[in-house]
Specification:
By secondary structure, the protein is an all-alpha fold. Helix content is 44%, strand content 0%. It has eleven helices and no strands.
Length: 304
């Protein structure tokens, strides 16, 4: 009688036993996982919308910072200085008491109203519609006071759309007090034509100004894509129609020649980011990039 006889008698049997010791547990684990997740697998006949609805996250996190209001001097430094520092297109220079005297004589309310609506070549709110009335008013007060006025800037406050839902509605008196809002280029109230916000290759134009006839050789609206001409008429025309601050006039092939030599990409970048005296997007930062590019392409087509 043989005790403790080993059932593995050949090397081949040993190899088989070792392989099975690994394969069997792994196969068991795979089968178990498939069994547990079979109801969650993607089925070939499953509707795509149903699949997306099934895997949609429970919630989404959205982070949006509040609008940061600017004081009058900050608005001037970031926007108004483009025209009011050099006195472009008749805009009264900052600190020039003689030029600002006629503006101040009209009173704060009138000056503010003209600046909000735009007047004599200046776009509403200096070309930045994202500014609140109080921010623009602060910029006007800042410039007027630098020329000898003693105006008081309105209190900065968030527009109703930017306030939390739980915030109380402003009292009628407060609303009335905020009415004297001003454009960043409040100099528009001066008898001389007020400056556009931009003064270079893609400068700003008044939104309310009536479009002037394009020079001979300018492309038709259809040929330019329509959109480019519309942006030119409302934003770029104020500088490019008259050649303000060195801006090349629409259709002036000689003035546009060195710019065309730079290539379309360089012109688009200059218009979007600003260059020399021209602010980004001609001062109208609310414009989508595609609209600015369309306006540049329209002017380029007119110069070819």
């Amino acid at each position: 009688m043989r005790e403790h006889e080993n059932f593995i008698k050949t090397p081949k049997q040993l190899v088989i036993i070792v392989v099975l010791s690994f394969v069997v547990p792994i196969a068991f684990i795979i089968l178990l996982s498939q069994l547990m997740t079979s109801d969650k697998r993607v089925r070939p006949d499953e509707d795509v919308n149903a699949l997306l609805a099934r895997i949609k996250p429970v919630g989404e996190l959205a982070i949006a910072g509040p609008k940061v209001l600017q004081t009058g001097d900050q608005v001037f430094a970031s926007l108004c200085t483009t025209c009011h520092t050099p006195g472009a297109a008749g805009a009264p220079k900052f600190g020039d008491k003689a030029a600002w005297g006629k503006v101040i004589a009209q009173g704060q309310a009138t000056t503010v109203q003209h600046a909000i609506a735009g007047i004599r070549g200046m776009p509403p709110k200096g070309g930045n519609p994202e500014l609140t009335d109080e921010e623009v008013a602060g910029a006007v007060v800042h410039m007027a006071n630098a020329a000898g006025a003693s105006w008081k800037a309105p209190e900065l406050k968030m527009p109703p759309a930017a306030q939390p839902a739980s915030a109380a509605a402003p009292a009628p008196a407060a609303t009335a007090a905020a009415a004297p809002a001003v454009s960043a280029a409040a100099a528009a109230a001066t008898p001389a034509p007020a400056a556009p916000v931009a003064a270079a290759p893609a400068a700003t134009a008044p939104a309310a100004a009536a479009p002037t006839a394009a020079p001979a050789g300018a492309p038709t609206q259809a040929a330019a894509g329509g959109k480019g001409k519309a942006i030119y008429d409302t934003t770029c025309m104020v500088c490019h129609a008259a050649g303000v601050a060195g801006a090349p006039k629409l259709g002036d092939k000689a003035a546009w020649a060195p710019r065309l030599a730079q290539g379309a990409a360089a012109l688009h970048t200059s218009a979007l980011k600003g260059k020399n005296a021209m602010p980004p997007k001609g001062g109208n930062v609310a414009l989508p990039d595609a609209d600015v590019i369309a306006a540049v392409d329209y002017m380029v087509a007119a110069a070819k």
